[in-house]
Design goal:
272 residues, alpha+beta, 3-stranded antiparallel β-sheet, 15% strand, globular
């Protein structure tokens, strides 16, 4: 059976990043990954974001880059506002995540102007060619900001052995989360013990290795239940669960709702 999970846009797109209430926390906080890059611009509020298994705080005028196939989840509280730019795979962006904190008014304004220009050209009255031209200018702006960073402000934690191990683990999850591989299986593939892997995950993002794995699976389950009419037993099978009953117990433990209840509450298909 071939299943579509999340629609992965190949075109440039801009979407708001706002608080959706407790019931919709999974839409931002649960671990997920995409086939194309993401650029998150925070304009208001603060919180935490996990990218490739490493937690960082964020605040206004922060720019966070998520490469393709990189797991991430972001806390979005009631005071937070930002935008997520879905980028085409053009090769103009780095291969690794970055987190820019723009402290000066001039680059803050330049960034806002560039994103506003992209947003304007993505409207029905705009021109997609112009939007991509502004995107090219945005990539140049980012490159210059990265080059101008004070070396003392660069987060060195990603260079530690623990962070590198967890990054590799999250890459494997992003690729294989739909299988029935356990934390023990992933640890063996990484050449470490499950205990050591969990210790490193707790160190870098304060979550266990199992939490990260289950969180990615949960996001996919929520997406399939919300956006498709796939029967629940087929969702369970596609995500590596041995039985629909086990999937139901696991999903209910995570969300407080059975898969059927979640689907009905989100206006999805009633097919079960």
């Amino acid at each position: 059976m071939t299943m579509m999970t999340e629609i992965q846009p190949s075109a440039l797109a801009l979407t708001p990043l706002t608080y959706g209430g407790p019931a919709l926390r999974w839409r931002t906080e649960a671990m997920r990954s995409h086939d194309t890059p993401r650029l998150i611009h925070i304009t208001k509020g603060q919180g935490r974001i996990i990218v490739a298994g490493l937690t960082n705080g964020y605040g206004p005028n922060n720019l966070i880059f998520i490469p393709p196939h990189t797991m991430y989840g972001i806390e979005v509280g009631p005071t937070v506002f930002g935008q997520t730019l879905s980028l085409p795979n053009t090769g103009d962006w780095p291969d690794t995540p970055f987190h820019l904190r723009l402290l000066d008014a001039v680059p803050q304004k330049d960034l806002s102007n560039l994103i506003e220009a992209i947003e304007r050209e993505l409207k029905p009255t705009g021109d997609s060619r112009a939007a991509h031209c502004h995107l090219g200018l945005l990539s140049i702006f980012v490159e210059r900001q990265l080059q101008a960073r004070d070396p003392q402000t660069i987060d060195k934690r990603r260079d530690t052995a623990a962070a590198k191990l967890v990054a590799r683990y999250t890459q494997m999850i992003a690729r294989d989360f739909h299988s029935d591989r356990s934390v023990t299986d992933y640890a063996a593939a990484l050449g470490v013990t499950p205990t050591h892997l969990t210790r490193c995950c707790k160190q870098t993002c304060d979550r266990s290795a199992l939490d990260l794995l289950n969180d990615r699976i949960h996001f996919e389950a929520c997406t399939l239940l919300r956006d498709t009419a796939t029967p629940i037993q087929d969702v369970a099978k596609a995500l590596g669960f041995q039985s629909p009953a086990y999937f139901t117990r696991s999903f209910q433990c995570k969300s407080g709702l059975t898969p059927s209840e979640f689907r009905r509450s989100r206006g999805g298909s009633n097919r079960s």
